[in-house]
Amino acid sequence: MSKHRVSRRQFLNYTLTGVGGFMAAGMLMPMVRFAVDPVLKANAAGDFTATKLKVDDITKEPERVDFTFDQKDAWYESEVTNTAWVYKNEEGQIVALSPVCKHLGCVVAWNTDKKNPNRFFCPCHFGLYEKDGANVPGTPPLARLDEYPYKVKDGILYLGKAKPRKEA
Ligand code: FES
User: Fold this and answer.
1) Rounded to two decimals, what is the model's pTM?
2) What residue ranges line ligand 1, CB within 6 angstroms?
3) I want to staple 113 with a disulfide (CB 3.0 to 4.6 A). Which of 22, 37, 121, 149 is the partner?
């Protein structure tokens, strides 16, 4: 007969240590991810993605531009398509606005509400924004549309990550 019989006390010790370790790992993993995430986000923030839009082709009329990029999360890689409304303002500067409504996140479009021409319109709760992205008082959105930072390279428009704008 084997001399290495496991006593009841030893068996309980091994079992509880194993279960405790498993539970500790389960609690630690989200904490590790939380600690690593800001590093990943900081890298992503510096990235600009090429659109198909030539800067010379941008007019004063907002145009919908879709652009796609690879997004890498800690364990997950995916292809993401974003949209911007792009135009040149009266000073000839490029403006690239996020279409995500600042009320509850629906998608706004340019000039689609016949009663409110030359404004961005959100059909979900009739939100309105001026051409420069300012929310129209008296409609549900309480903030301006976010704006994409941009770069121009070889005559092509590159867009970064949309950010909230300071009040004008
Ligand atoms: S989500 Fe746009 S108005 Fe409510």
Assistant:
1) 0.72
2) 101, 103-104, 106, 122, 124-125, 127, 140-141
3) 121
